[in-house]
Each structure stands twice: as C-alpha cells, then as structure tokens.
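Quick one, T. Sequence first:
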Amino acid sequence: MPAFQNNPKENHVKPFKVIAIGIILAALAGCTTPRVAPASSSAAPAAICKTADEVEIAALFDRWNQSLQTGDPKKVVANYAARSILLPTLSNKPRLTPAEKEDYFRHFLKDRPSGRIDFRRIETGCNTAVDSGLYTFTFARTGSVLSGRYTFTYQWDGAQWLITSHHSSVMPEKQ
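Structure tokens:
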C-alpha cells in the first residue's frame, strides 16, 4: 500500500494536499513558465514573465526619490502596490493601506528629504525584483543627515513596477 493510504480517513485528502502545495509554490515563485498558444489558436494570450535588468530596477529608487521631492504624499504612495507594506524608518507602525502610507509620508516630507544610495544589491526574477542596501537621507529643512538600511521589493503589475514591500531602518551603529 502507498504511504498515503496508511490512514483510511486521509486517503482522499493527501493527494489534494500535494497538488495544493504545488500550486502554492508556483504562485510564490512569482509566475509559472510562460505558455505560448499556437499561432492558429484563438486562445487568450499567455501571461508575460517580465524580467528587468539592474539599471531598470535602480531607476525605480530614483522614481521614488523624485516623488519625495514633490512634497506630495499621494505621489509617493503612487509608487506602492495596493497590497503592500511599508516598514518605515521613523515610525514603529507598519503601514498597510494607502491612507496609512500617506500619513507617514505627510510627516516625513515636512523636512524635505532627499535620498542617495550608498551601497546596493539588486536581484531580479519573473515579475519581481529586490533592491537592498544602504542609503543616506539629507533633510533640506533641518540640514540633518540620516543613514539607514533598506529593502524594496517590486512586482510587475502588467504595466509598471510597484513597491510591494519597503523596509527601512536607521543604522544601528554610530559611525
């Protein structure tokens, strides 16, 4: 008898669990291998697996930083996917909704921050990318400087790259 048939009450469940786990793993991988319909087929177009190079992903920080320069929290939040998380530098509260992110950036933008990347590592995949490293903010209103660590995760939504997770923290050791 196969191993999954040892318990008669679970005989019908375990094969479905294996299939479900496979589906979940494929979803977590970002996408499946693209399927291309034959030229004569009337099937709907296959999903696209968008990959980006490091230059394209690095430019997303510049886009985000430029939105900071507008002073408009709504323009900053426009860089984030609807279902995303912000773990901000200067707040202990995770920000999940657009309103919560706007609230954070409304306060953060008062000191007119401008960021610069000091060190980064970029990884890309199917419809996803991660940009992690160190950055420094200079605040024009106060003249203060703040160094921190960051991770931006991005997802391709079919039209643009959006932030799905942004974690930022102050450097723990004084320099």
